[in-house]
Design a protein that fits this description.
Strand order of the largest sheet: 1-3-2
Number of domains: 2
Helix content: 55-70%
Strand content: 5-15%
Largest sheet: 3 strands, antiparallel
Distance between the termini: 59 Å
CATH class of the largest domain: Mainly Alpha
CATH superfamily of the largest domain: Citrate Synthase, domain 1
Number of strands: 6
Oligomer: single chain
Shape: globular
């Protein structure tokens, strides 16, 4: 853990509004973690996230209404989940480091981890066939998909197939996992423009980069894994709400796709792609970015509230891309943009930036970065659906009314 993730005893006590003996009591009760400061045992650092979490709990006891009001805006946790943890600048799936998973496993194995709690795909049939009745329609869609973006094609394919897949109405965990496998294969078919006969990453790489198939398959597996879930982001929370109503996994994924496209969520990838088109070459990076800041515009693809020291997903993916196609002009352009942005606003690239680089690196059509995002995140949406179905509770918050009161 970095030093900036810690507080001194005085800082921690001040943040909590308590005296030092009370702080030490919290530590002894396991509410706040601490570590030695340097080589001395007399002074210690206190975990900033633990302090913040305890502070939120105190605030909730004092003023529950204000905490609830802020909970939906990067605030206090609102639902329990055993899927994803973001802590100390790292991302974990069911307690396992997502970066390590991305380096050693396939997206199918990580889907098994998120859906069933283990990495063993033999426990699930992830090669579920697309329903025969929908296959002809799917092949027709693939052959005439040009007018649509990849996301729109996903949505059309899901709508076409949902009515031909009555097994999707079975919401027991094992059945949802099998429906989820069919959905993933359906979306892979749309993305690769062919019905898959292999694993997801291999199918995509065979279609998108046949000359570099093994290396690109590894890169795509890592990309899909690192984007599979990210706690209660907008699309995952939307998917979870839809699942809580008892809707099918097809409806869950369709809802997730709708939320993902917003410019404040996955649509940010398209903004980064547009930025690359505006800059065009490394020599223009400083000038174009300066102009954006002068106009009061932001620089898309940089910074993340949950990763103040840099998004680990972007760091890993950019490194993998550098190893896969090291002499690509796209990487030179991306490095120039990163260097200029760091010097101007001190921010590191996030996963939106990495996806835009991936799109250019593989010479994919516009919008495919968002499509890759959607395909990976579908694994997470389905995991949230399984978890929510099992809870058998509907997500139905109340509104705090602030409008005109009715007349007497």
């Amino acid at each position: 853990m970095s030093q900036s993730s810690y507080l001194t005893a005085g800082q921690a006590a001040q943040a909590l509004g308590v005296k030092l003996p009370t702080l030490y009591a919290y530590v002894s009760r396991g509410l706040i973690r601490s570590e030695e400061m340097g080589n001395t045992k007399r002074e210690r650092y206190y975990d900033a996230e633990d302090v913040q979490r305890l502070k939120e709990r105190q605030q909730q006891r004092r003023d529950p209404t204000s905490v609830i009001a802020s909970a939906l805006d990067w605030g206090a946790p609102v639902l329990e989940s055993a899927l994803t943890l973001i802590r100390d600048g790292k991302l974990y799936y069911r307690g396992q480091d997502a970066v390590t998973l991305a380096s050693q496993h396939s997206i199918e194995e990580v889907a098994s981890l998120l859906w069933a709690g283990n990495l063993y795909t033999r426990d699930m049939n992830l090669n579920q066939p697309i329903p025969k009745s929908a296959r002809a329609q799917l092949e027709e869609l693939i052959s005439h998909a040009q007018p649509y973006s990849l996301i729109e094609s996903f949505q059309i394919a899901l709508l076409m197939t949902a009515s031909e897949d009555p097994a999707a109405y079975d919401l027991r965990p094992d059945a949802v996992r099998q429906t989820g496998a069919r959905i993933l294969r359906l979306m892979t078919a749309v993305a690769a423009s062919k019905v898959p006969e292999d694993d997801i990453a291999q199918t995509l790489s065979q279609s998108w980069a046949p000359n570099r198939q093994p290396q690109v398959a590894r890169l795509l597996d890592a990309t899909l894994i690192l984007l599979a879930d990210h706690e209660f982001n907008v699309s995952s929370f939307t998917a979870r709400c839809v699942a809580s109503s008892g809707a099918t996994p097809y409806a869950v994924v369709t809802a997730g796709l709708a939320a993902l496209q917003g410019t404040k969520h996955g649509g940010a990838v398209s903004r980064v792609e547009a930025l690359f088109g505006e800059i065009q070459k490394p020599a223009n990076a400083q000038r174009v970015l300066t102009q954006r800041l002068r106009r009061g515009e932001d620089i898309p693809g940089f910074g993340h509230k949950l990763y103040p020291e840099g998004d680990p997903r972007a760091r890993v993916l950019l490194g993998l891309m550098g190893n896969t196609i090291p002499r690509s002009p796209t990487l030179l352009l991306s490095k120039a943009v990163m260097q200029a942005t760091r010097s101007m606003i001190g921010e590191e690239p996030n996963s939106d930036f990495a996806l835009a680089v991936l799109t250019r690196l593989l010479n994919l059509p516009e919008g495919y970065g968002l499509g890759v995002f959607a395909l990976g995140r579908t694994v997470g949406w389905l995991a949230h659906a399984i978890e929510q179905y099992q809870s058998d509770r509907m997500i139905r918050p109340r509104a705090r009314y602030v409008g005109s009161m009715p007349s007497a």
